[in-house]
Design a protein that fits this description.
The protein is an alpha+beta fold. The protein has seven helices and ten strands.
């Protein structure tokens, strides 16, 4: 959903226009109080009603980077979930998912799990992460909440390789942490399309305090790079799907009886 907002006199009401992924025009007048709930990220968890645009790169290969359109919803005050598309038009394809959490739950994660997560401090401060269509003041307040969060991103359809089908296996993605990492042309093309200027957003966000990044996030910066690979699973071996239960704690799947 791409939202276009107009403030009414006195900010008593807000007239919203938005376009769905399928290009259908919608409009609604809402109260300023309801808009405040939107800014505070208290949304209906069943609706993907937060739209953000940013950039990702494959963990272990910063040269392979791309724009990512995030359609998100809030699970609770500490957890958001996003479906990631390679565009916001009718032909957009789902590239993957991103889970965004606050620092509170991030600090509770085991060290190996933290390696899968990236910080959002530079994405916010640089102006790379944007919420297209909402007023500048609302975006500013939203980014004050985003700056201290962490994301875990998996891309499942590598459309940057022009694949016509979601072949291959999921790959872990990361976010940029310093100037000079993101391809300038990629950012400029995004800015032109949305009629925005990342540098102006950077200046606007100078007043947003940057929290210390928790140890363990952005592990690639310490040359600790992990990536997903596929390997055969031995007959009777447990599926390693739980971080909390050791393999010995799980009951192996029963095998079908041998044919007589």
């Amino acid at each position: 959903m791409c939202v276009d907002v107009e403030w009414a006199d006195g900010n008593a009401e807000i007239f919203m226009r938005w376009r769905t992924l399928h290009g259908q025009a919608q409009q609604q007048t809402i109260s300023a109080a309801l808009w405040a709930k939107f800014v505070n990220v208290h949304m209906d968890p069943e609706a993907l009603n937060i739209y953000m645009d940013g950039f990702h790169f494959y963990n272990g290969d910063m040269k392979a980077q791309m724009e990512a359109h995030h359609y998100c919803s809030a699970v609770n005050d500490d957890v958001n979930q996003c479906v990631i598309f390679d565009g916001n038009g009718r032909d957009a394809k789902i590239m993957g998912v991103e889970y965004i959490i606050s620092s509170k739950p991030f600090e509770t994660l085991p060290a190996e799990e933290k390696k899968l997560w990236h910080s959002h401090v530079h994405e916010v401060k640089s102006g790379q992460l944007v919420a297209p269509g909402i007023p500048q003041k609302a975006e500013h307040e939203f980014m004050k909440k985003m700056i201290g969060t962490y994301g875990k991103t998996w891309h499942t359809w590598h459309t940057d390789l022009k694949l016509t089908l979601p072949t291959g296996h999921p790959l872990l993605m990361m976010g940029f942490t310093a100037d000079g990492q993101a391809n300038e042309q990629m950012v400029a093309e995004r800015d032109k399309r949305f009629d925005i200027k990342s540098e102006e957003k950077r200046k606007d966000r100078e007043s947003i305090a940057a929290p210390a990044i928790s140890h363990g996030a952005d592990a690639w910066q310490q040359a600790d790079v992990v990536q997903l690979t596929l390997q055969p699973l031995a007959t009777g071996a447990p599926v390693p799907h739980s971080h909390r239960a050791a393999p010995s704690d799980r009951t192996p799947a029963k095998q079908p009886p041998e044919s007589q």
